[in-house]
Amino acid sequence: MCGRFYLDVMMDELEGYFSLEASTISLKPRYNIAPSQDILAVAAPNGARVLGGFHWGLIPFWAKDEKIGYKTINARAETVHSKPAYRAAFKYRRCLIPCSGFFEWKKENNIKQPYCFRPTSQPMFALAGLYEHWQDQSGREIDSCTILVGEANQDVAPIHDRMPIILQPEDFDCWLDPQVQTKEQLLPLLRQSAPGEVDHYPVSRAVNSPGNDNADLIKDISNSDQFRLT
């Protein structure tokens, strides 16, 4: 799964990587992004790529209650095309979620040790996502999204058996194109990342609390006393 990530790039880096027009969105580093928070995603509903804010936890357009979003922070790549909560968005409303790195946990000596996963060569990850627009009976509206996950590759598997789906720049156009709608076209994009694309190291357990948000959370502690004592 993917239940926590961070984004600490500059706006010009993000615009360049995703081929965006200049954005008016204010971007500041966030080191501990958690479900139910607002996150950034790139979509192209009318052909041009745009950056917008979305609630993390997808709320299907047909949902009676927004609380369903607590259960839909991730969608399994293997079944996303057929699950009722995701199949319409998979067909018509796909997005890319900028990510500098993500966190996973491994139980070591009865302690859940967090690890940070970062790209080895790309400036950032582009996570495959879906988005929805929801409105309740009072007219209140929420744009929401989910992150697709699949089987871990050999870089991530020693820590966790699942990982977010990372798309390559050559796949962005196809994934974002609302005219592309068949599973035969889309599912092949959700392939496992190649070995060597992701690096990882242990980080402070302070990341366990979503209330903590600072650059110390992504520091490598493999040589620190804190890690040697786990």
Automatic annotation (TrEMBL):
* UniProt keyword Hydrolase present: yes
Q: Which domain of life is it from?
A: Bacteria
Which InterPro entries does the entry mention?
Answer: SRAP, SRAP-like
Gene3D superfamilies with a match to the protein in the record = SOS response associated peptidase-like
Q: Which GO terms describe its biological process?
A: protein-DNA covalent cross-linking repair; proteolysis
Which Pfam family is one of this chain's hits?
Answer: SRAP
Q: Which PANTHER family match?
A: ABASIC SITE PROCESSING PROTEIN HMCES, DC12-RELATED
Name the chain's protein. Answer: Abasic site processing protein
Tell me which species this is from.
Candidatus Thiodiazotropha endoloripes
Q: What is the lineage of its organism?
A: Bacteria, Pseudomonadati, Pseudomonadota, Gammaproteobacteria, Chromatiales
